[in-house]
Amino acid sequence: MKFLCLLLLIATFPHAAPAIQNQPQIEVLKFSWRKLPQSRFPSAKQSQEKRNETIDASIRAEYEQEKPDYARIRSLEAMKNHGAPLDVPKAADKAYEYKFKMRNTGSKQIISLKWAYVFKDAATGNELVRHSFESKVNVRPDQQKEVILYTDSGPPMVVNAGAIKKSGQAWDESVIIEAVEYLDGSRWAKE
After folding, report:
1. What pLDDT digit, counting tens, does each position of 15-37 carry?
2. What is the DSSP letter of 21?
3. DSSP assignment of 32-78
4. Given a cut of 80, is residue 84 above it in pLDDT?
5. 110 CB-contact burial (10 Å; exposed 0-12 / middle 13-18 / buried 19+)
């Protein structure tokens, strides 16, 4: 009887929740940023704008005809409005590259990361700029991976002369892992 009561008591109390993880179990091995060289080729957005200008010129020319071909005009407008967008974010369209190399030190496969590249004033430690990114990745336990993203956002526009004098560098830079999603559906987020 005592055994049955003990068993019922154990069954009715909620089981202890697993311990919340304080760290993302990711080791940042190295990180860097760079300004990308300007491409002499037009970006996808510029190509799309040029295509639309050509279509608009054809539409205007058709309206100026003595007898406009309205079927052709509708066709050109459909081509402009429903054409596949050419603007796909690629390195050629962006001005800066941010990257870091990481190692999954945990026991779960990582499928997604939220991370930030942070610039701090080297003299005061005040945060100047934070670029936040989201990356789809596939990193098994104990595997290394380089994560690269392209953006138009650059480093801080202000440099503290005292920081350069004190530490020899304009900024302190770091990569901060803000959230991790694992293959099993679990997540970790910085508090």
Report:
1. 444 444 567 899 999 999 999 88
2. P
3. EEEEPPPPSSPPHHHHHHHHHHHHHHHHHHHHTSSS--HHHHHHHHH
4. no
5. buried
Greatest pairwise CA separation for the chain in angstroms = 102
The model's pTM: 0.62
Nearest to 128 by CA among 184, 182, 172: 172
Give the CA distances from residue 8 to residues 14, 16, 115, 163, 168, in Å, rounded to whole numbers and listed in that order.
12, 16, 46, 65, 67
**CB distance 154 to 117 below 8 Å:** no
Residue 182 phi/psi, 5-degree rounding, is -105, 160
Give the Cα-Cα-Cα angle 16, 19, 23 (nearest 5 degrees): 170
Could you tell me the CA-to-CA distances from 103 to 25, 57, 128, 129, 145 in Å, in that order? 9, 54, 27, 25, 6
Residue of 182, 31, 174 lying closest to 104 (CA atoms): 182
> Phi and psi of 144, rounded to 5°?
-100, 150
Residue 14's CB: how many other CB atoms inside 10 A? 5
Instruction: Give CA–CA dist 11/15, Å, rounded.
Output: 9
Q: What is the DSSP string of 95-160?
A: SEEEEEEEEE-SSS-EEEEEEEEEEEETTT--EEEEEEEEEEEEE-TT-EEEEEEEES--S-S---
